[in-house]
# Entry
Amino acid sequence: MKYIDLTHPFTREMPVFPGDAYPEWKQAATIEKNGYNVVQLRTGMHVGTHMDAPNHMVEGGRMLSDFPPEHLIGPAFVVNAFEKPRVTLNDLDQMALSQVSIVLVYTGWDRYFGQEIYYRDYPELDLEFASALVEAGIKIVGLDFPSPDREPYAVHKKLLGNEVLIVENLTGLEALLPYQDIEVMALPARYEADGAPVRVVARVG
# Structure
């Protein structure tokens, strides 16, 4: 059994979605002065590897704190859509879909993380692809790019409106391709919020 981390490090230098504020770090206490270290962090919730809750796009939708642990852990498979600008229904293995609760979409786009192109030219999910996930009862879809779509956010709304949580900015999904038996754990802190940074780990065997 092996564990694979699919999370970008949360750092001072990490890129953010255009228009979002960069996280602000403040050293509030030091060992030298106070006997302990404390860092204060001011940040938006949709930075780095993070999870979108329904409330992000759906008025009155549930927040992350409303979801039980069993919604955040489950069997997964990887859609291999390497270098495809649009992920469609043709990329989806319907048989595999019926056996999992989490779908990860691998495009290789994470290699551009930190470059201008990352937030400019990222791939998208087709609305039919998103609808198939909803119909199959998928709980989470994870992406190695920054968003499943662009305005007017029809894919976002389709997924979140049906309580399919979205994880954006994953990395390293290619490491999962050789495996059939994959369990994913995507566990944010229990924020009463529309999203939050999340640590995503895959257990493979």
